[in-house]
Design goal:
By secondary structure, this protein is mainly alpha-helical. Helices cover about 85% and strands about 0% of the residues. The longest helix is centred in the first third of the chain and has 39 residues.
Amino acid sequence: MTTVIAKVQAVIVNVLILLLLLVVVLSTVHLGVLIAEEMWKRPMFLIPVEDLLQVFGYFLLVLIGVELLETLRGYFRHAAIQVRVVLEVALIAVARKVITMEPATVSALTLFGIAALIVALAIAFYFESETRDKGAHA
């Protein structure tokens, strides 16, 4: 029974990898089109700040997809989710939110929450790195 579950799990992970790969490729093409459109608007080759924030947000979204792809690859190889990659995805997602949000439209409590989330992720990333370094020296 365990081998059947493992085989089904492997098929599901492979399908997820293929689907995510398709999404990342299409998103990258869309990002290229978005950048080209912004560059050809008047004044040419100058992207306004609002549009630049949209491009950066989309860029980080594609990067999140790439990191999720790495998470699935690591899971397929080691049959376990790698904490470091998950933390990287979370940090990129929070960075995307911070870069694209308008602070004037967000409540102070939400800003404190985002700050606490960043601190918590940084601490987790630090301890994960320390654990990895100690494991490499042991």
